[in-house]
Amino acid sequence: MSHTDILLGLQWGDEGKGKIVDVLSQNYNVVARFQGGPNAGHTIHFDGKKFVLHTIPSGIFREECQNVVGNGVVIDPVRFEQEITNLRSAGYQPERNLRISLRAHLILPSHRLLDAASEKAKGKEKIGSTLRGIGPTYMDKTGRNGLRVGDVFQADFDQKYQRLKLKHLDIVRSLDPSAQIDPIEENDFFSSLDNLRSLKCENTEYFLNQIQTQGENILAEGAQGTLLDVEFGTYPFVTSSNTTAAGACAGLGISPRRINKVMGIFKAYTTRVGSGPFPTELLDETGQKIREQGAEFGSTTGRPRRCGWLDLVALNYAVMINGVTDLMMMKSDVLSGFDDLQLCTSYLQNNSSLSELPMDLAQVVPQYDTLPGWNTDLTNMTKANQIPPQLLGYIRFIEQFTSTPISLVSVGPGRQQTLFL
Ligand code: IMP
Question: Strand locations in 92-210, DSSP E?
Answer without folding.
Answer: 98-101, 105-106, 200-202
